[in-house]
Amino acid sequence: MIPLSSPLHPDNPAYPAWRDAKLAAYPARLEDLLVEVADPRALTMSEHAALLARIRKANMALYASRLTEVADKSIPRLLGLQFGLERLDSNLLADEDAITTLTVAEEPGRKGDYIPYTNRPLRWHTDGYYNRAENGICAFLLHCVDTASEGGENGLLDHEIAYILLREEDPAHIRALMGETVMTIPPRMDESGVARAAESGPVFATLPSGQLHMRYTARTRSIEWQDTIEVRAAVTALEAVFNGTSPYIFRGRLEPGMGLVCNNVPHCRSGFNDGPSHKRMLYRARYFDRIAGS
Ligand SMILES: [Fe+2]
User: Contact at 8 Å (CB) between 287 and 213?
Assistant: First the structure.
């Protein structure tokens, strides 16, 4: 839900001021989001401040550290804690400590059925779009241990920018996408019946703190959009943003020792090929918390 008191509500006259503040001095290039840090497990005050400043502006920041090819899951866990990220989502396929190791699954079977464990392209989405509203993913971290021989590039778009681009095109798109039943994830079945109930919810909503939250997937299977002219037009416009050449879309690849800290911004990943000497490996941590102070 977006309350009328929010500048993000289509009928609130404070929107232009909110937009102009958002776009002022907005990062122009991926490099503007990058901070060099010595050790993400124990940031210095200036490193932390530099990352937080970027997150406050763009809902995301990248770091490059000297921990290249160090396989240590305390890296995302300890980094998250420094940004107030405590409540990890232990999703279906996370390891026991609720931090997921993303690699290409060696064995065909359970993990191999899920795209994040393959080397195929991953379409635009926010993490946990299938979660219940009260279990929304507000932030996630990626830390790269090793990268593929080729490919595996990410696209990133601040969800507040996605909102602005759509609203500037037509406020009716926002009205359509803030509907409470605009996007439905059908139930997931397993051998014993319904493993997860159907989930309906909005694409754009505000959190109790007033900040924008987005839930989206460009997948066309396992997703049902509300069948109205307004919703179809809005979804088409959103797809055009993601598939277009907006200068606000950042593209780049996480190299070993690098990572992403973000308020669950929409993202995609190109396909990749592991080589004989490299196997892409990332840690991912998803949180019910938003980054503190952002
Ligand atoms: Fe993701």
Answer: no
Q: What is the pLDDT of residues 174-207, one digit of tens each?
A: 999 999 999 999 888 888 888 778 889 999 999 9
Query: What letter does residue 194 receive in the DSSP assignment?
Result: E
pLDDT at 114: 60
Higher-confidence position of 90 and 29: 29
Instruction: Write down the H helix ranges in 63-203.
Output: 74-81, 159-169, 171-177
Taken in order 256, 262, 139, 213, the sign of the CA dihedral is negative
Percent of residues, the chain, with pLDDT higher than 70: 95
Closest CA to 105 of 90, 115, 94: 115
- pLDDT for position 289: 96
Residue 141 CA to ligand 1 center (angstroms) comes to 10
Query: What is the CATH number assigned to the segment(s) 15-287?
Result: 3.60.130.10
288 contact partners, CB below 8 Å, separation of at least 6: 87, 89, 135, 136, 137, 138
Give the number of residues written for the chain: 294
CA atoms of 281 and 68, how far apart (whole Å):
12
Q: What is the pLDDT of residues 102-127, one digit of tens each?
A: 988 776 555 555 656 789 999 999 99
How many of the other CB atoms lie within 10 Å of CB of 69? 12
* Residue 35 to residue 272: CA distance in whole angstroms: 25
How far away, in angstroms, is 58 Cα from ligand 1 center? 17
Distance of CA 267 from the midpoint of ligand 1 (Å)? 6
Cα(3) to centroid(ligand 1), Å: 28
